UniProtKB/TrEMBL annotation:
GO terms for cellular component: cytosol. Its EC number is 2.1.1.74. Gene3D superfamilies: FAD/NAD(P)-binding domain (3.50.50.60). Belongs to the MnmG family. TrmFO subfamily. It catalyses: uridine(54) in tRNA + (6R)-5,10-methylene-5,6,7,8-tetrahydrofolate + NADH + H(+) = 5-methyluridine(54) in tRNA + (6S)-5,6,7,8-tetrahydrofolate + NAD(+); uridine(54) in tRNA + (6R)-5,10-methylene-5,6,7,8-tetrahydrofolate + NADPH + H(+) = 5-methyluridine(54) in tRNA + (6S)-5,6,7,8-tetrahydrofolate + NADP(+). Pfam families: GIDA. Keywords: Cytoplasm, FAD, Flavoprotein, Methyltransferase, NAD, NADP, Transferase, tRNA processing. It is found in: Cytoplasm. This is Methylenetetrahydrofolate--tRNA-(uracil-5-)-methyltransferase TrmFO. PROSITE patterns: GIDA_2 (PS01281).
Amino acid sequence: MAGSEAAWQAAQLGVPVVIHEMRPKVETFAHRTGNLAEMVCSNSFRSDDSEQNAVGLLHWEMRAAGGLIMDMATKHRLPAGGALAVDRDPFAESVTAALKAHPLVTVSYEEITALPDNGHWIIATGPLTSGALAQAVQEETGADALAFFDAIAPIVYFDSIDMNVAWMQSRYDKGETEEERTAYLNCPMTKDQYEAFIDALLAAEKAEFKEGETAGYFDGCLPIEVMAERGRETLRFGPMKPVGLTNAHDPANKPYAVVQLRRDNALGTLFNIVGFQTKMKYGAQAHVLRMIPGLHVAKFARLGGIHRNTFLNSPTLLDEQMRLKSKPHIRFAGQITGVEGYVESAAMGLLAGRMAAAEIKGETLPEVPRTSAMGALVHHITGGAEAKTFQPMNVNFGLFPPLDGVRGGRRGRKDRYKGYTDRAKEDWQTWLAPQSSLAAE
């Protein structure tokens, strides 16, 4: 995501770009294709609400900057209530095609195994940086890269789901159209079914880690079994919460818990299990997941998995222009910088591409306004976060400078969030405006 967006932004500003992509010659655990911007976990870009949600605001800022990722995500949008979910394969194919068709972009398929000594580079290797390059980064920085483990959710064939048990409904019937209001597939559980499911989940055989590895999970992407280990009710107040839903087959009885699935492709033949990232081994995983009502004969297009995700201690290693302090001709972008999520990763690519293009043209972009979503996020990773406790971060309003004269607390939240987004949009457009002249130079 980050590398594709960085390349697009720099090329749009008139700078020739070479994208180095090791796939499909060198494969990874999670990827299936050689396409750029392949989605390996969820197919959701999360909320598209630019007035009340920080990630929705990030969507808006990227669109305002002519972002390729958001443009293609919108073109391949799937119904998902208030979220922006995409048809993952056509999305990646379109991003790849757009970049290959750009007159200033070249794609080179080979692995980069060392840090280059000259030129202008952006390293946007995502959560699966290859071993050789990761080692080169470690040797250069003199510090071990931090790491956590990222888990992948299973995908189910729709025609194997029992629709006499499951029903279609978005939580609280959210959405402007009937398609949006029925974007999620729901599988209800009674208390006894939930308790049996938790028992099986806790007893299931899990993937083991290599000696010396520790499982430091990002809280926004916890495996379901790790959540269950934190308390038997954790899942029922997390991805399996039953609120805002009415069982179409039995409206009088409120489910004790609900498992939701979201469409994963435009044809509606594939659905992913929302929030069900897992490290269970495949045999145990299929058995446990088929305990979910409606999925008792489910067929899986992909079972869940787990992979290592490396990232830098960016507050100590990167400057405000996202450059490696010890080698300022190298910038980093995306998840390797310590942001979490597709949108956040692509946003950091957008900034890195613009910053690199401006530098190549002999200019330095002014500081990204900290009042914007992008500014709040890049400031956090390049200095605003506490280096000793630095962990991957999603964009959120807690990263934004406070608003004057706006009521705090839960009751004032709606007005406060609208204030944040109004201020951000104005300041972001002011920051973008002078850059339109760069492309003409």
